[in-house]
Amino acid sequence: MKYIVFILFQLILFSLSEVVVKPIIQCTLQDCEGDDFCYQGYCTPCEIPRNLWFQRKPEWGTKVGEAIQVPAYSNFGDANVLDTNKDEYLKDSKINFGEEIYVGQNYQCVQFARRFWIQNYNTTFGSVNYAEQIFNLQEAYNFDTKKTLQMKKFQNGDINTPKFGDLLIWQKDEGEFPYGHVAVVIAVEIESNYPHVLIAEQNYDQSWDARSFSRALKLVKGKNKEIIISNNRQIFPTKEDWKCRDTEITSQGVILGWVRLNIQ
Ligand SMILES: *[C@@H]1O[C@H](CO)[C@@H](O)[C@H](O)[C@H]1NC(C)=O
């Protein structure tokens, strides 16, 4: 009997030591290269979390998040062609402002950007066929004061830090961004271990990473204080799997820069 208890005791000790010794930390947060992410100390393929993420496809028109009281909706399944049936005009704009204010086509990325400027600044910008063209617009229009306002442009790599309300503009290319893309800057965090820009947008993943922002993009401050933003999510502790929401293809998306409404 004594002998058996001793063996049991040994077994428990042995298995405990197994547990204690085994987790040699092989990665920390940003270590894993390529298509791996750091999961509980080990570089692990992104495949499983990515497949789970891709299954999240809210039906077209479902609210997917809200930034500063501006809701965003899923554009899942949309053919992304011009369709006047999906045109949206600001409610009661004729009564309130004496003119009809065009918001955009539901639920394109441009429609969210315009709606954000309308709700926050009573300001709209001109018609564009695709998002990249916003970077070429010179002025916006405040329909409340009837004044035109300058749209200032900053190339990605500028030393002027993006600010709340700026529009981030993606370059149009043949692959994943045939129309370019636009997102609104909600917050910027430079002096952090995980520098990033919080953005809000429509018609990107059709699902937001959090209730109040769609993605936290990686920001790098260069030697000459230049700010470079890439189309990759920043990797945070406890959110390691966010890395897997980007793919090799989407990572090639190029951000041209940011557009600021000159409010003065
Ligand atoms: C927008 O215009 C309305 C109507 O004039 C006004 O009540 C509101 O304060 C304005 N909002 C902003 C953000 O300027």
Written description of the protein model:
It is a single chain. With 264 residues, this protein is of the alpha+beta class. It has one domain (26-261): endopeptidase domain like (from Nostoc punctiforme) (endopeptidase fold (from Nostoc punctiforme), Alpha-Beta Complex), CATH 3.90.1720.10. The chain contains 4 helices and 15 strands. It has helices spanning 2-21, 47-54, 93-97, 109-121; strands at residues 36-39, 42-45, 63-67, 70-73, 87-89, 102-105, 123-125, 139-142, 147-155, 167-170, 181-189, 196-200, 215-221, 227-233, 255-261. A 9-stranded antiparallel beta sheet has the order 7-8-9-15-10-11-12-13-14. A two-stranded antiparallel ribbon has the order 1-2. It is globular. The model is unreliable at 9-18 (pLDDT under 50). The protein binds 2-acetamido-2-deoxy-beta-D-glucopyranose. 2-acetamido-2-deoxy-beta-D-glucopyranose binds at residues 121-122, 144. GO terms for molecular function: ligase activity. Residues 1-17 form the signal peptide.
